[in-house]
Amino acid sequence: MKKIVSCFLAAFMLGALLTGCGGSGSDSSGEGASLGSGGGTLTLATNEDGAAMWEEIAQRFSQEHPDIQIEISPFVDYSALNQNVMASHQAGDDYDLIIVNHTDTLSFIKGELLYPIGDMVRERNIDVDSIIMGNLENMGKLGDMLYTIPINTDTRIMLVNTDLFAKYNLDIPATMDDMLKAGKVMAGANQGDYVFTDEMCTNGDYFSTYEAGIFLQSCGGQLYTVDENGAATATIDTPEMRNYLDFISELLPYMPPDCTTNNDALAAFREGNIGMYTFGPWEYSRMDLNELSFGYKLVKVPAGPAGSVSTSGGFQLGVGSGSKNIALALDFIDFLLNDSDSMMLIGMSGLPTVDSAYEQGEFAGEKYEVFKEQLASSNVPQAPVANLGEVVACFTNYWNDMCVGNLSVEEVIRQAQPAVQKLLDENA
Predict the structure, then answer these.
(1) How far is the C-alpha of 382 from the C-alpha of 266, rounded, in Å?
(2) I want to staple 350 with a disulfide (CB 3.0 to 4.6 A). Which of 22, 86, 154, 173 is the partner?
(3) DSSP state, 325?
(4) Considering the chain, what percentage of its residues have pLDDT values greater than 90?
(5) Which of 341, 362, 379 represents a domain boundary (last residue)?
(6) 5 belongs to a structural domain
(7) What is the pLDDT of residue 268?
(8) What is the CATH number of the domain that holds 347?
């Protein structure tokens, strides 16, 4: 899949967390931590790529809070970061602030690496639900408790070849049904035109729930759900998932014949005979839209029964469960959420998570306007269980077999439901 870091905690690491947390000096209840604002030093664990950015943000923070210093601890990648966060926690020397990939959030919560900040956020009148765009704040929650703040994200929209739809006197599809109707018209003309393309079976294990997952979300479906205790239940046998699988099966004949083997759908779209392509903010680094040989428009995901819903990922900021400076860490979070320049800096690797960051600089104007609109109805594809990679790969294997004609929708549902549930049960 595009633009997602594969750095999940391994299952054995989670086991170590669950049995080894609570070392000397570690207190997830917050007792013994600094609960009154004052001076001190905060430690922040991040990856090396983000270190310079966090140094700049730390300087901005220090201008408002000269008595609070931030010590940046960079790690080569998120796997190394996760391992060091775990080791520090077990040694009773937790980091105060931790950058968490959204795919690791649930593992961090269940491993008691993160302090539950929801109550303190409310006490300080930090209105996270209003400040954070759309449903993104849910990425950092288990049940009703908030553990992390989403600090950058992404989402998917559609890049449309307007000339192709004009050729057939068709409106740009506003719904998934419209896509199928347009595809039928183009196929009937037999001129080698197609309504949509993407890298259906060549873009990794996450494609079925991230890129193509925009249609699952728009059907109102999920691969599985997670309750407030972290227990996961597969939802492949639901009407919403069935609608999604039926749609993909009906859409495939209106896509290029090599869509399941071509690993460069963008190049295919550039040829001019395809109507729509899934487009993320990372695509701006791959192409100049003004160099396209046809008219184009960026639009929201065509709506399904649940509306126009897309998928999002991104990174979170949490507070170490054994931090001795929890109040100071909340000072930093409060500052960050209300400093649009800092949130714009963080968003440069994807998209910002607050409206104010879209009012000036890089993210102001038409280039990101549709992305901002789509974020109002974007969800994380599924809550990240500890063995997320294995779970998603299992489902995607069945999904790929359906796409190439080896399995029917009914067979996918019948076989994938118990197979995915078995893997989910390993997290119990």
Answers:
(1) 26
(2) 154
(3) -
(4) 83
(5) 379
(6) no
(7) 96
(8) 3.40.190.10
Asked if the model's pLDDT at residue 5 lies above 70, the reply is no
247 in a structural domain: yes
The model's pLDDT over 291-311, given as tens digits with 9 standing for 90+, comes to 999 999 999 999 999 999 999
What confidence category does residue 37 fall into, taking pLDDT thresholds of 50, 70 and 90?
Answer: low
Q: Is the pTM of this model over 0.85?
A: yes
Say if residue 257 is in the same domain as residue 177. yes
CA nearest to 213, candidates 194, 226, 231, 198: 198
pLDDT tens digits for 194-205? 999 999 988 889
Q: Report helix angle 78-90 to 11-20, nearest 10.
A: 20
Dihedral (Cα; 199, 200, 201, 207), 10-degree rounding:
90
Q: 166 and 140 in one domain? A: no
> Which structural domain, as residue segments, surrounds residue 173?
157-311+387-425
Q: CB within 8 A of 33, min separation 6: which ones?
A: 27, 323, 324, 325, 326, 327
Q: Side chain identity at 161, as an amino acid letter? A: N
Domain shared by 213 and 343, yes or no? no
CB 154 within 8 A of CB 3: yes
